[in-house]
Specification:
mainly beta; four-stranded antiparallel sheet
Length: 115
């Protein structure tokens, strides 16, 4: 069975940093990355990486966040620097699997940035 386990959320002041980690198991994974959802907002892509890796970032986090993955360990991390109050959201790890692209989500971890 596929499992997706997140860690690293918390409360931080504006300008600070947090690192989120996600460990997946039970498959080979095509895409691994992070989405977030703020209250009253739709879930949005933050950053993602393929196996090669090719990476994608939301415009709002470019230059501040870095996504990295380890194919041997099936982990994907999100280093978040220069955090802003508007980054406050529940962050979800996202993965999809070989060969058919089945999607799995982590349980979500709260990130709160105070001003």
């Amino acid at each position: 069975q596929v499992q997706v386990v997140e860690s690293g959320g918390g409360l931080v002041q504006a300008g600070g940093s947090l690192r989120l980690s996600c460990a997946a198991s039970g498959s080979i994974f095509n895409v691994m990355g992070w989405y977030r959802q703020a209250p009253g907002k739709q879930r949005e892509l933050v950053a993602s990486a393929t196996r090669r890796p090719n990476t994608n970032y939301a415009d709002s986090v470019k230059g501040r966040f870095t996504v990295s993955r380890d194919n041997a360990k099936n982990t994907v991390d999100l280093q978040m620097n220069s955090l802003k109050p508007e980054d406050t959201a529940v962050y979800y790890c996202y993965v999809n699997t070989y060969p058919y692209g089945t999607e799995y989500w982590g349980q979500g971890t709260q990130v709160t940035v105070s001003s």
